[in-house]
Amino acid sequence: MMRTTSLAERWKQTRQRTLRIAALVSAEDACVQSMPDASPLKWHLAHTTWFFETFVLEAFDPEFIPFHPQFKVLFNSYYNGVGEKHPRAQRGLLTRPSLEDILAYRHATDLRVQQLLLKNSAEKMLDRIELGIHHEQQHQELMLTDIKHLLSCNPLYPALLPANTSSEEIEFRDRCISNTPLEWHRFDAQMIKIGHTGSDFCFDNEKPQHRQFVESFSLTSRLINNGEYLLFIQDGGYQDPAWWLAEGWDWLRQQQIRHPLYWHLGEQWEEFTLEGLQPLDMHQSVSHLSYFEAAAYASWAGARLPTEAEWECAAEQDTHLHQLFDSCWQWTSSSYAPYPGFEIPTGAIGEYNGKFMVNQYVLRGASSFTPPHHSRRTYRNFFPSHARWQKTGIRLARSLSDTDD
What we know:
Layout: H1 2-22, H2 27-31, H3 41-60, H4 71-74, H5 99-119, H6 123-152, E1 184-187, E2 190-194, E3 210-214, E4 217-220, H7 226-234, H8 246-255, E5 263-265, E6 269-273, E7 276-279, H9 291-300, H10 308-317, E8 329-335, E9 361-365, E10 381-383, E11 392-393, E12 397-399
Parallel strand pairs: 8-11
Antiparallel strand pairs: 1-4, 2-3, 4-12, 5-6, 6-7, 8-9, 9-10
Helix pairs in contact: 1-6, 3-5, 3-6
């Protein structure tokens, strides 16, 4: 009963936080899809509700009746085991159902989940609700990044958040100061354990915990900031193929990319943020970089990107590392692959992570858009190497020999 009560409260808080994000935008904003990788805010509101309707109510409520039979197709993201899906790139064409209708769908589903919690405390159902909470928190971050991309396409560069508001006064931050000295922290060669253990929640891709040997390495104390990244640009970094992976160089040339996603050069460098277009702050962590850009900068800087084992090792052992979880997701050089002994859960829920373990790179940490209590040391985020609309940045690593100081 204690777990049911605690879970019900966290579920309620999560659902309310999603609505607070939605309240920042207009109905017009909520319907538009700015690119195939992003989704309209209205779709996020419906899909996170669809998750609870499909994987909780339909699975555990013997009196289940769908809110609307077509919603099972419209708001299915990638679960082939559930059935057909509306094409991802066409989510912005769904002007109907209206935002009002989707909010009614959320309200009705929330009432049904609350009623189910009053009469069913089966561990399997509670585990599914727990997964749904963390799933919705993932979408809260996506909502912010998708809205940011959408507003950046508007030549008015509208602000979503009030300008010049301190991080203590606002729930959704888009500023990450990185002005402490850049220092290198050494870690000796060692056998470590990485991956999640214990009874606390984790996603299936974080397990099982296993041993891994890491050679001696060093890691920067904080993330690279805008001023440091600007030096790379001014040194011709985007024009010199010497720093780029072959696929990255082809991508850069094809897309005519010359700077990070939200940077603009007029009389001075500016950056689009959720507070609108702002002068480029040299002490802000550089963000919204692809894996290609992060790897090119690291090469130019005489360093490399850390492996995910190195990152987790450092995050566990060094209390002096900054910006592990409150700034940007940090690219690693590790391909997104299963841990030794990984098992995909049975049923459609098994499609959550395992089937994406190809052509992706692991990111570690969290960002300023990540909801509170959602990050942890073992979290394995992942995106394809060209992705830039997520809040992704750079922490550098270097390999060391046993004789290095």
